[in-house]
Amino acid sequence: MLLDLLTSRRVVFVGGKGGVGKTSVAAALALGRAGAGARVLLVSTDPAHNLGHLWGRPVGDEPLRLAGPGDLLPRAGAGTAGPAGHVDGLEIDPERTVERHLSAVAETMRRLLPERMHAPAARHLELARQAPGTHESAVLERIAEAVELGEQGYDLVVFDTAPSGHTLRLLALPEQLTSWTETLLANRDRSERFGDAVRGLGGGGKTGRDAELRRILLRRRSRFSRLRDVVTDPEQTGFVLVLTAELLPVAETMEVYGKLTALGVDVAALVANRRSPADAGELLARRRRQEDEHLRRLRRRVPDVPLLDVPLLPGDLVGTAALAALAGRLGSSPAG
Ligand SMILES: Nc1ncnc2c1ncn2[C@@H]1O[C@H](COP(=O)(O)OP(=O)(O)O)[C@@H](O)[C@H]1O
Ligand SMILES: [Mg+2]
């Protein structure tokens, strides 16, 4: 059911509170779609990565094949006879991203600024490394890059995101970064006019520099606004909120649902994970009734989004076989 819901999208974010099962659901979703023939890129943006642990092999900052036609791919949907798909995984390394990002900026600055400005520029960058937004904007850049990578060589990009608050800040950032860039561009416009005015006095070099800065800013602006366009297009992007049917995860799900909707992001499905069985003793049956209560509350607040139950599974969710079993659950019919 979840798999069917998402077949038409090419970008899926999986979010929710820490520990509720985001990574497991994201991986199973990726595997399920690969079983239906899709080429899937699975990207972890959570600084506490565990894709590698889950797939039993080291996953790094570059895409790596996690499952292909030779592996046990679950058949999702009936009679999908096309070529087998695959899952590539990548864990965004924020430190490495910031390093790469800042050294690119440093390079540009050295090229564009006069010699005497090099030392102050280096000090400025050193401060930028510690600044609060740097980390996030670097990760956002990588998310944009992964979406672009998806356009080139994948049918679907699944993001296993950091716990929800962090992800929301990231999704809100394109707006902020865009307007920030606009401001800079507006300043550039003024200085370019200034540059025009002094060109007659031999300021041609400066005008060339302005044009290059402008190009760099524009490139960044168009990258973030492209990302925002993709993320807020329900035909292309869906957000899956994973929760356990308990007080705090349900409260947070309602809050995140409201914020995502306000940002224009489509919440495609809710997954109530690790549901207690009703027929395995009184303790679990009572838990089950308590969970039902929480889910009814969730339903009153979010009535229209499909809600899928995933039972508490007995074994460790590690390795392709276990993920394939979970993927099978994601293909089943919705909870009542
Ligand atoms: N349906 C389930 N049944 C049993 N264990 C589960 C289920 N879903 C997830 N888990 C286990 O719960 C733990 C947390 O899951 P994980 O996917 O890492 O959560 P998150 O990425 O949200 O922190 C893992 O040990 C995982 O194997
Ligand atoms: Mg995780």
Notable features of this structure?
single chain, 336 residues, alpha/beta, Rossmann fold, 8-stranded mixed β-sheet, 56% helix, 14% strand, binds adenosine-5'-diphosphate, binds magnesium ion, ATP binding, P-loop_NTPase, ATP hydrolysis activity
Would you write up a description of this structure?
The structure is a single chain. The protein has 336 residues and is an alpha/beta fold. The protein has a single domain, classed as Rossmann fold, CATH 3.40.50.300. Helices cover 56% and strands 14% of the residues. It contains 11 helices and 8 strands. The chain has helices at residues 2-5, 22-35, 51-55, 94-112, 118-130, 132-153, 164-199, 204-231, 247-263, 282-301, 320-330; strands spanning 11-15, 39-44, 64-67, 86-91, 156-160, 237-244, 267-275, 307-311. Strands 3-4-2-5-1-6-7-8 form an 8-stranded mixed β-sheet, with helices on both faces. α6 crosses α7 (164-199), α7 packs antiparallel against α8 and α9 (247-263) runs parallel beside α10 (282-301). The two termini are 13 Å apart. Mean pLDDT is 83; it is low at 194-204 and 332-336. The structure holds adenosine-5'-diphosphate (ADP) and magnesium ion. Adenosine-5'-diphosphate binds at residues 16, 18-24, 50, 273-274, 310, 312-313, 316-317. One of its GO terms (molecular function) is ATP hydrolysis activity. Belongs to the arsA ATPase family. It comes from Streptomyces aidingensis.
